[in-house]
């Protein structure tokens, strides 16, 4: 827009505004053509461009204060004038973000124009602090609502909607704290608007619309207005306020002032100790030893001697500004404590809204959302109302019937889907990342309040409420999606995308969820939950596909560990000879241009791929065939390797990161890329749903990861700003990881130790309970660090990096100990399998207290490194059980434990002397005992009587077959004969590959 045209428009605007009316003493007199002039202003606004020049000119002229509002007050009964005046009021008070399509402008000129529009809106909001204006709007809205649906015309519905939108626009204007300069317990402009609404009776009409089913079409307008009314309020403050200022607020303010005063005293005392009463004769110039300057001489320092400990080389350096895309996300939520009269009015409004309107309004809103009859992102008002009013109901006078509409599994599912949707949009729509981060934070708050309400319901005195809470908790803990939601959010936290307040709410929500889950698992000794796994299934009717779709993302270390647990059972069975090995495998490609020596790396990739695809027989066959082809250098082991050594070698190949190889992928050939449809038919991915027994310790173990600990340490850095409850939640989780799981090595990190140093030097560490708890935990971690440093000197270098669970175990127990531990726990020998079969037959109909068959087997195994999960997995592998429920059935007989008599002890000695040279000593003794005893009781009695010194002496001895030597000799002869005909064998194998 040129300067000349802008001047013409400015002149037309001034002329039009002057023709609206004028003031005569204390009364506003309209002009004869006032109605047409307002219509002209509407036409001007309709022609406005992206610079919003006309809108800004109207703000400079201040036409709303001088003309439009006086016309509304002094001529409320002229319907035509009122309607046109309402139209322009709604137009010029529209939120600035809507004018700029919900995006803050980045360009400097456009940003200044945006700020100018916001400034005019704040002036408009100040002008609306007039009870007469709201009285006129309230009267007109009340008259329209009294019309029945038969009498109400389409123009009346439009008028109602415009009044509600005007109320929304005025309440939506952001506050300007720098101009208002209001403190807590003072009246701001927003509070004055709320008080004007209260005096005019507008709040009663809003409650009526929210309650009435006939006004269902305005439910989103009402919900948005209510959310803007409580925008700066906290539900906790409103729920706890009374007729006078509560003592809790006074005590809290006094405590904050005392803490600030004590902190100032402590700092002042430290500063006084720095100053010396003796005069310094050095004049503030001295040399600093062992600190070199630009030359080889010592550094010369020009300052007083008391400040030498604050020697800093960063002084005078230019501050390096962070780029915008790397700055931490800021939190824009502003909360303040209004004056007592405003809080009492809002508290009464909340009580009335919960009693009469909450359930019906939320039901209507949810119905519109599900039928997609709402505008974009209207679900945010639904989430806000759920969080705010459920919190108020929980803290004021808890009654679950007031919020029953939003306490259900369906609501949990809805919030879960919204969280996933917001996170995906935050990753893709990066231009609006701030908006999506605010929405995901809002959904998290609603999820947190649902869990808090559920916890209060669990402690209710009413049996029906407790039963409902128990059913809901059972459903939430059973579904794997709900159990893993908070862990997933913690793993994906990024301070660049999400604010620190989001992390605070996430940590507190996780604390509540884990506390409820721990209580539930302790009450139910065998809690059955759902588990889902993705498995690839190939079509047997078609030929096996030669390639798979290459996955772009490498699996994590935890995924590899779980995958190894699945394949290790089959691998141990193959190495023992329980399963046949495929003989038709070729470890090399004769048609390849690579030489025979260069194909060693390709063979390792094939072995790794076979292991990752759970083909244990093919991997062992490839490994042994490669050993025959490349015997020199023992790259693939030796011919006389033991099964345990082969197991460890294959495990090392499985976990090795090989360049150029991806998990579960094969290189595509040129022929296969032409037909994608056949490949999709051959390989299908299906989700297998199983049930398993829940272990709380195993679930907590999943939180012992680098990302989770890093997020908690990030929040711990603000321990002085955090509330005591937030600090307690942080310490509780870190205590679970460091003490319960003995993974304190995850906290051996320099940034965490820096925070611990600040905590241990905090003046309040002996007074404030929250800081005292932090100091006690920090001292524990530091002590563990120095204990570890005595055994492992490299821990000082490890302190510079964040570590995985495997690295932490090796730091604490020694490098290489993790592989030994895993191989000892996973591999099952033949003797151990026989022992497992015997124990299962012995205890399959027995139950002791809360222990089932699996617990009894774990307690009585000679190898105490086997876990319950491994025992259950191997029972399924041996086909002794098909489902976990078979281990939890009711006992058919009870155990009768009696003392050993002298005759039984003599019989035990006789049987031991008779079968001490047998291959299965314990088995033969159990078969010949007159009074049948459990296996572990017999072992304990033999140890007590001194018949054996160790449980290992009672293990079943492995008997080698006499034909093994002959087979090995014949095999070595055949290998010698085959080595003479290498060329023929290579050609033969090349034809096989073709």
Notes on the structure:
The chain is mainly α. A hairpin with a 5-residue loop joins strand 3 and strand 4. Helix 1 packs across helix 3 and helix 33 packs across helix 34. It is elongated and about 125 Å long. The protein starts with a helix and ends with a helix.
Protein topology:
Elements: H1 3-18, E1 21-24, E2 27-30, H2 34-46, H3 53-61, H4 63-74, H5 79-92, H6 96-99, H7 108-127, H8 131-145, H9 154-172, H10 177-180, H11 189-200, H12 202-211, H13 219-229, H14 235-240, H15 247-274, E3 285-292, E4 298-302, H16 340-356, H17 358-370, H18 379-396, H19 409-428, H20 433-458, H21 463-478, H22 480-483, H23 485-491, H24 500-523, E5 528-538, H25 557-576, H26 600-612, H27 616-629, H28 643-655, H29 676-682, E6 683-693, H30 696-701, H31 706-716, H32 724-740, H33 750-760, H34 769-791, H35 795-798, H36 805-813, H37 817-826, H38 830-843, H39 853-860, H40 868-877, H41 902-915, H42 921-928, H43 935-945, H44 963-980, H45 982-993
Give a brief outline of the structure.
The chain is mainly α. 59% of the residues lie in helices and 4% in strands.
Tell me the β content: under 5%
With strands numbered from the N-terminus, the spatial order across the biggest sheet is 1-2
Query: Which word captures the global form?
Result: elongated
Please tally the helical runs, counting DSSP H or I stretches of 4 or more residues: 45
The average pLDDT is 80
Query: How large is the radius of gyration?
Result: 38 Å
The tally of beta strands, per DSSP, is 6
- The amount of helix comes to 55-70%
Summing up helix and strand content along with how strands pair, one would put the structural category as mainly alpha
Oligomer: single chain
Largest beta sheet, briefly? 2 strands, antiparallel
Straight-line distance between termini:
75 Å
Weakly predicted, low-confidence segments: 1-5, 538-553, 662-683, 890-898, 961-994
